[in-house]
Amino acid sequence: MTPHSYMRADLATVRAYSPPASICQLDLGDNTNLWGTPPSVDAAIAEMTRGALARYPSANAQPLRIALAGYVGMPVECVVAGCGSDDILDSIMRAFAQPGDAVAIPDPSFSMASVFARVSGLRPVLVPLTASQSPDIEAMIESGARMLYLCTPNNPTGGITSLADIENVLRSFDGPVIVDEAYAEFSDVSAIPLLRTYENLIVTRTLSKAFGLAGLRIGYAICAPLLAAEIEKTRGPYKVNAVAERVGSAVVCNDVQWVMRIVAEVRESRDRLSRELRMRGYQSLDSSANFLLLPVKDSEALATRLAARGIAVRAFGDLTGIGDAIRVTVGPWPRMQALLDALDGTGA
Ligand SMILES: *Cc1c(COP(=O)(O)O)cnc(C)c1O
Fold first, then answer.
1. 100 backbone φψ class: left, alpha, beta (φ>0; ψ -120 to 50)
2. What are the φ/ψ torsions at residue 258 (nearest 5 degrees)?
3. Interval 139-171: pLDDT, tens
4. Which residue of 30, 166, 222, 342 has the fewest CB atoms within a 10 Å radius of its CB?
5. Which of 206, 213, 240 for a ligand 1 pocket mutation test, highest count of atoms within 8 Å of Cβ?
6. What is the CB-side half-sphere exposure of residue 249 using CA atoms within 13 A?
7. How much is the pLDDT for 347?
8. Measured in angstroms, how far is the CA atom of residue 146 from the centroid of ligand 1?
9. Beta strand pairing call for 291-295 and 311-312
10. pLDDT category of residue 173 using cuts at 50, 70 and 90
């Protein structure tokens, strides 16, 4: 057998995720927290003993799940934690669908959703957003999919799905509905209260964005205990390492005020940036997250010119219904001013 003959044919067109390594002074490309890490991190790391590293962490991140359950106001049986919400999304796909099943995913949305579906042998069915940048609920339900994925605020557009729309989906669709709330802290809307009524809802969250801990890799799902137990099976044990378990718990218990302060600053920076961009002829999409999406004529060309000025942004080519666009992370105002200065200098 040659290596090609034992490689999976359906993976031939799946590309490994490899964001461009940023050599830029200012990275506005990945929506992480540009204010840095929350205050409890240093003490939590300092309190860790070397002995803790010689041992396994808890198999299912019990101490962290208790902290997260307190934060979202749900029982601990409803919370599953993993190595980033990527790990959680991947585990959910494997828990509730079998090879050949379809998963309906809005387009554009988080690109990894279709990648995880395909790697598990599922068929992503991409359903274009409506003209108002909302998921096309009816088309998703009628797609014949076994499972639905929604993302609110949606990456990369920044728009939110109303709770009425989410409730409509949960009521009409007979299957699991993932609501990816990676950016929920930046908006006023969460589907979590709907968990009390709908057993087919799975909300996923992360500490990578508002909580400023992308490097620790902590994500979680909140859902009915029966579904949480299934996700535990497909995720496997020890996915939250000992440092992440310790630091994550401390931050979730102590630093929510810090997160709320950052959220307020993000909103201020975001609204000011969108006004400044509009004055320069860039009409960004309405965003409830910590990033803005700007439709542009040639995203690669603009990203290259900004990189030459030390600023990395995420370029998207020909997004469905939008065309070329760049996505910029919202951070402290001086960094946004640096972006504006660079744009002014690019002659774009
Ligand atoms: C960043 C992001 C994630 C992944 O977060 P991790 O917890 O770092 O794996 C998930 N969903 C969306 C929509 C994101 O933008």
1. left
2. -60, -45
3. 999 999 999 999 999 999 999 999 999 999 999
4. 30
5. 206
6. 19
7. 52
8. 22
9. unpaired
10. very high
**What's the full length of the chain, in residues?**
348
**Ligand 1 atom with least separation from CA of 214:** 8
Confidence of residue 256 (pLDDT cuts 50, 70, 90): very high
CA 27 to ligand 1 center in whole angstroms: 17
Please indicate whether residue 219, judged by its CB atom, sits closer than 6 Å to ligand 1: yes
pTM of the model: 0.96
Q: What are the tens digits of pLDDT across the range 36-66?
A: 999 999 999 999 998 889 999 999 999 999 9
Q: State whether the beta carbon of 30 lies less than 6 angstroms from ligand 1.
A: no
155 lines ligand 1 (CB under 6 A): yes
Tell me how far apart the alpha carbons of residues 42 and 209 are, in angstroms, rounded to a whole number.
18
DSSP string covering 216-261: G-EEEEEE-HHHHHHHHHHH-S--S-HHHHHHHHHHHHH-HHHHHH
Determine the residue of 209, 290, 327 to mutate for testing ligand 1's pocket, defined as the one with the most ligand atoms within 8 A of the Cβ atom. Answer: 209
C-alpha 295: how far from chain center? 21
R_g of the chain, CA atoms, integer Å: 20
**Probe residue for ligand 1, chosen from 107, 203, 208 as the CB with the greatest number of ligand atoms within 8 Å:** 208
In this prediction, residue 167 carries a pLDDT of: 97
